[in-house]
Write a structure and sequence with these properties.
Chain A is of the alpha/beta class. Chain A has six helices and four strands, in the order H-E-H-E-H-E-H-E-H-H. Chain A has one domain: Rossmann fold (3-Layer(aba) Sandwich), CATH 3.40.50. Helix content of chain A is about 35%, strand content about 10%. In chain A, strands 1-2-3-4 form a four-stranded parallel beta sheet. Chain C is an alpha+beta fold. Classes of the chains: A alpha/beta, B mainly alpha, C alpha+beta. Chains in contact: A-B, A-C, B-C.
Chain lengths: ~160, ~350, ~575
């Protein structure tokens, strides 16, 4: 998977090209569970228009780059989310949108709610808010894209490195 | 020396085609955006000009996945089988008078024959992915493409009859006085509907019906293999636009401006129309799509064939007149069928409810 | 159907008289419906008699854990008569060692899922229920959370429990054997997709049937909806929705919060149109507290309810476009929606989760400039609707997709307790705003949109008409806004209503939304139950989808317009 991003002389310009491309083209997976999904939809609408940044929502996890977890994850949904995450092709990123995905939100003390998506999958960007404004979501997406352009590792890659046997 | 010339010719042609495909991809996102009151890509290069390049390079860098239960060889071949016919047809398509990959006597026949190979790639992709959704998507795509080839090809037989030849450059020169869209509007309508279905564009994009089957036949493809499907689709859009220009819009003919410019203007006008249709219309259900092809388009195409034969025997004015009348009748009929759909079921339900 | 005996001459109180086994008839709350107590043995006959006396709509079916620490619990059933919106209720007291009650599934098919929910959250076993499994929680969940004996740890679910949930076996909630299932009784074969798929397909074609699993993640923007379909070729032979993927413990959390702190949680149940749940809650609370809202607040409540109905229908309209493959209605609808959300933000401070209604009124008064600009917008609303609608209504492809598809009969509507635009599209003329007015609806006329054929296209037409009507109502309310305070005087800051119960309904974009508040005199509600219209509407899906093609499933489900947050709570 290319976890170690050591660049050799010949490969360096290609690596930079790849980073530039990843910083300018991000295809999130449509994964909205709850209220934040409505704000995510609004983000794609004409006033906020994520397409300006090269963000193009895809429906199949295999073709998506990042998963925006918009909404609460509960114990019933958790295995499905994990399955979807594992189906995504690398390099993949996760954006936890909304207080529920960040830490359980208003339902954190409930008996059925996972307190934060990072209990299940590695997360790159946390966006607090209930729901966060569309501008916040765009900020989160752009943060991921800028990190890409700078060549930083994704949370998935950092997790893989940290847990290499 | 000749081999080198051929090789260079092939490379030049491929580059031209790929550049145009990239332009079509850009046009789609920008024009779709503007029709939807938004801007489309703006950040990647000036006003998003480099967006398709960024998309393609990013796709190259993705992990290559294959489902464990997939049929390995078929899974690998399918995108190639979808892409190769898309680019191979350009061997027979002339762009200006003296530029053609190879000017076949049976030019248009060759084009349709090669294009008919693409459903095979789609079917293989659906089957090899070992996924219920993909299989359904693959079957639907193949059924759709095979069904719509018939009216599409039938509608071009009239054009061939009038031009007296299947060679594409002859067909274009036969339109030097008047374009086929004027003398055979019904054929153009049928051809346009046919090409929308052939390239799986709205309103015939059921195989990729995103809201129903999660991206259909290419749901399990990632990285470069998906990029092949993705690029092949836009290449097909350009191909059929170019074909429509050559067959119906007078090809490279036009005053003042050089030939190639006219060709590109007309082709991109067709591309614009195809994108416009995508922005406006919902999509058909599979069985409605089939009914439309077999019960509506094919009879209309046969009628068009008879009218074209009439035109060959008499003169162009008669042909134009009857074709316009037939086209108006066809449009009215289809609109009526569409508007009154489901009337019987609704009337029965209303009667049932009121009585209950 | 059943014969109705002199329905218009029986008052609600009389409806419960003379029924064997029904005793202690008393009002449910301060202004409440007559409520009779009965025993498990007499329940089914009493319910049948009530149904025959004209109360044909099962409005509420839930349980309340024993009040005042007396142990056991109380089942409560509420029935409604369409013609005059009169309601009666039945209560059944159950002790902790005998939590069994007969199922009324044979009288109302819609009672099936409601009883499953009570089994899931309270542990009550329903005798004769065909499919008594958990419905919102995982099959391997231990305990029944809405019992008071189920204590929530203050820190939520532990990491170990999450790990088990993620890596353990799957959560197919169709798998049967749970202790409550009655042996020998199975789900009707026509609705059990696994049963239907096991049967042979078309003999002439040697075909096999297929189980298709749609959801819970799929692009049709309807939230985490999960439906099993049994397919024969392209035709759906059986369908079964499952949900629970968004169960967020809202009702239990409300029992731990102060009354005012429950409002934000209720905002998040029906998150697309938060004002309606808030309003139903406030009405019930005001009934319990004996507080009346001010005239200005009544009008403001109407304004916000109607505007949020418009935004909810805008979201539905976008989904209709996506479902049928049209890309552009979403963008056009959301442009208009943004203008209304700007107004919400100016007045209430939030785009979606408002927390704006208070007992006795609303939190803040409306700024005159905001009202003026909204009046200006509403006057042009019809034109902007024409813009959006022109893409779909007259389009032949759209008509071919929607007409004659997903027919819903009136019998199924009564049987499953379907309400809202879904029912009105089949000719069921009932709207809580007009028939049992609340807030300022008795002072502002409401025209109800009605259609007769009951297919997907009619549901579309009814909702579009509702949007236009909502704009007219909101405009009338804004222009006729009375002077005065925006909240009643003397409402205490910390709310402790006297002990009792109250149930009030409003007309939400999805149907009749009711909130039951049971108070024990303390600062937190003893029980807070949301009667979710989308829950009952969703469970008519098996009847709705039978005979549809695969391509019709998503448009038909989209026309039901569900919000999973409200269904699962």
């Amino acid at each position: 998977m290319g976890v170690d991003r050591e660049t050799k002389v010949l490969v360096a310009p290609l690596q930079q090209l790849l980073q530039w491309a990843r910083g300018r083209s991000m295809w999130p997976l449509t994964f909205g569970t709850a209220c934040c999904a409505i704000e995510m939809m609004t983000c794609g609408s004409a006033r906020y228009d994520t397409d300006r940044f090269g963000i193009f929502f895809r429906n199949s996890p295999r073709q998506a780059d990042c998963m925006i977890v918009a909404g609460t994850i509960n114990l019933k949904m958790a295995p499905r989310m994990r399955l979807l995450y594992e189906q995504m092709s690398a390099p993949k990123y996760v954006i936890a949108m909304g207080s529920c995905a960040v830490g359980g939100g208003p339902f954190a003390t409930g008996y059925n709610v996972v307190n934060g998506v990072d209990m299940i999958i590695p997360v790159d960007v946390f966006i607090p808010g209930c729901p966060p404004r569309p501008e916040s979501l765009i900020n989160g997406l752009l943060t991921v894209m800028e990190r890409n352009k700078a060549g930083e590792l994704s949370a998935a890659e950092r997790y893989a490195i940290a847990n290499r046997a | 020396m000749t081999a080198l010339k051929v090789f260079i010719g092939v490379v030049v042609l491929a580059v031209i085609v790929l550049v145009n495909t990239v332009v079509v991809m850009y046009c789609e996102r920008k024009w779709l955006g503007h029709m939807q009151s938004r801007l489309g890509p703006m950040r990647t290069g000036y006003h998003g000009l480099l967006q398709p390049i960024a998309d393609a390079i990013k796709l190259l860098g993705k992990e290559d996945l294959m489902p464990a239960s997939a049929d390995r060889i078929l899974f690998l071949i399918a995108p190639i089988l979808a892409f190769v016919p898309a680019i191979l047809v350009y061997a027979a398509m002339p762009w200006v008078d003296r530029f053609a990959g190879a000017s076949f006597d049976v030019g248009i026949f060759f084009v349709f024959a090669i294009a008919a190979l693409s459903p095979v790639g789609v079917l293989l992709a659906g089957w090899a992915s070992a996924n219920k959704y993909s299989v359904i998507g693959g079957f639907r795509a193949a059924a759709q493409q095979i069904s719509y080839e018939v009216p599409m090809i039938l509608s071009t037989v009239g054009v061939v009859m009038l031009a007296g030849s299947m060679r594409l450059s002859t067909i274009v020169s036969a339109q030097s006085h008047v374009w086929n869209i004027v003398t055979q509007p019904l054929a153009f309508i049928l051809f346009f509907i046919g090409i929308l279905a052939e390239v799986n564009r709205t309103p015939f994009d059921i195989p990729e019906a995103e809201s129903e089957l999660v991206a259909g036949f290419n749901v399990e493809y990632s990285s470069m293999r998906f990029a092949l499907f993705f690029v092949a689709e836009y290449m097909n859009v350009f191909t059929v636009s170019l074909l429509a220009t050559l067959l119906f819009l007078g090809g490279w003919g036009g005053p003042v401006l050089p030939d190639i410019v006219w060709l590109l203007i007309k082709t991109y006008a067709m591309v614009f129309t195809i994108i416009w249709v995508r922005a406006t219309f919902p999509r058909f259900r599979t069985d409605q799509l089939m009914v439309f092809s077999w019960k509506v388009l094919i009879p209309a195409a046969l009628v068009n064939l008879m009218l074209a034969a009439l035109g060959v025997v008499t003169n162009l004015f008669v042909l134009t007149a009857v074709e316009f009348a037939a086209a108006a009748l066809f449009v009215w009929l289809v609109a009526k069928l569409g508007r009154t759909a489901g009337d019987k079921v609704r009337a029965a339900a209303e009667a049932g409810e009121v009585a209950a | 159907m059943t014969s109705v005996v002199g329905v218009h001459t029986i008052t609600p109180a009389e409806a419960l008289e003379g029924l064997s086994g029904v005793t202690d008839i008393e009002p449910l709350g301060p202004g409440g419906m007559p409520c009779g107590h009965t025993t498990p043995e007499a329940l089914v006959s009493a319910a049948r008699a009530i149904k025959e006396r004209g109360f044909s709509h099962l409005a509420l079916l839930t349980a309340i854990d024993g009040v005042e620490g007396s142990g056991g619990l109380e089942m409560i059933y509420a029935f409604k008569r369409r013609e005059d919106s009169a309601m009666v209720a039945l209560k059944v007291r159950l002790s902790d060692d005998a939590l069994r009650v007969p199922s009324i599934y044979t009288l109302w098919s819609g009672a099936g899922p409601l009883e499953r929910e009570v089994y899931d959250l309270f542990g009550v076993v329903f005798d004769g229920h065909p499919n008594l499994n958990r419905i919102v929680l995982r099959d391997d969940f231990v305990g029944h959370p809405l019992r008071k004996s189920f204590e929530m740890s203050g820190t939520g679910v532990s990491a170990e429990a999450v790990a088990v949930a993620v890596t353990g076996p799957g959560t197919a909630s169709h798998t049967a054997e749970t202790p409550g299932a009655v042996a020998g009784v199975t789900l009707p074969a026509e609705f059990d997709p696994f049963e239907a798929a096991a049967q042979p397909g078309d003999p002439a074609l040697h075909s096999e049937r297929l189980i298709l699993n749609m959801g819970p993640q799929h692009p049709s923007t309807h939230g985490v909806l999960h439906i099993y379909l049994a397919l024969e070729g392209e035709t759906v032979v059986a369908a079964q929705p499952t949900h629970g993927y968004l169960h967020r413990c809202i009702e239990k959390l409300c029992e731990k919060n102060a009354y005012k702190a429950c409002t934000p949680l209720l905002d998040r149940s029906d998150y697309v149109s938060g004002f309606h749940t808030e309003l139903a809650y406030m009405l019930a609370l005001e009934e319990l507290m004996g507080v009346e809202s001010t005239p200005k607040a009544d009008y403001l409540r109407v304004v916000f309810s109607e505007l949020v109905r418009i935004t909810s229908h805008h979201t539905w309209f976008a989904a209709v476009g996506f479902d049928t493959g049209a890309l552009t209605p979403f963008l056009y609808a959301f442009i208009d929606r943004e203008k209304i959300l700007d107004f919400f933000e100016t007045v209430t401070g939030a785009r979606m989760m408002f927390n704006y209604f208070r007992p006795g009124g609303v939190k803040d008064d409306i700024q005159p400039e905001a009202a003026a600009s909204m009046i200006k917008y509403l006057k042009t609303f019809d034109r902007s609707m024409d813009d959006c609608v022109s893409l779909l209504t007259d389009n032949e492809i759209f008509r071919v997709r929607m007409r004659g598809v997903g027919m819903l009969s009136r019998k199924d509507i009564a049987d499953y307790g379907v309400t809202g635009p879904l029912a009105r599209a089949s000719g069921f003329d009932h709207d809580v705003r007009r028939d049992a007015p609340y807030a300022a609806y008795d002072r502002i006329p409401v025209n109800v949109a009605l259609a007769q054929a009951g297919d997907t296209f009619d549901r579309y037409v009814v909702r579009i008409a509702e949007m236009r009507e909502s704009a007219r109502i909101a405009l009338a309310a804004l222009e006729g806004l009375p002077e005065g305070p925006h909240i009643a005087e003397g409402v205490p800051r910390s709310i402790r209503p006297p002990a009792g119960a109250a149930y009030r309904e409003v007309e939400s974009p999805r149907g009749e939304l009711g909130v039951l508040v049971v108070s024990d005199g303390s600062a937190s509600p003893w029980r807070l139950k949301v009667r979710s219209p989308a829950f009952s509407n969703l469970h008519v899906a098996p009847a709705l989808l039978k005979g549809c093609r695969v391509g019709d499933v998503i448009p038909a489900l989209g026309s039901v317009d569900v919000v999973m947050g409200e269904i699962d709570r």
